[in-house]
Amino acid sequence: SIAILLYLVRKFKTPDHWYPSDLQKRARVDEYLSWQHVNIRGKGSKLFLTKVLLPLLTGQPLPPEKLEGVTEELNVVLKQFEEKFLQDKPFIVGSEISLADLVALVELMQPVGAGYDLFEERPKLAEWRRRVEEAVGKQLFQEAHEGILNSKNL
Which reactions does this protein catalyse (predicted)? Predict the structure, then answer.
């Protein structure tokens, strides 16, 4: 999906903030997009699989210790995300939203869809989410995440 996003950015010449022409800013986007695969995506989707899909497929409740371990793994990468990528900036690259922010929030919505509100005790992350939602439009954001946010009702 990252390759498709980069293709679309180049083909349709999107506004510069999505994938900046400035090499340092672009490097920050690329850095996040490379890091997120095994970190945010890996741990977030693992929580979703463990909490929602496995019990659905097996018909068996999840052992609490298994969920605790998976949740702790996600918490470690969330802390890294805040410290390394967000720091004290409005968005990952700085003052404007980029593909990095969009990809990050989409991946974080999987655990939210599983019923884990990872924003609740993380004010910096919650404020960043609010800014990303506002930048893309709250209605569009809700439409895009409707399926994943209703998955816990399966």
Answer: RX + glutathione = an S-substituted glutathione + a halide anion + H(+)
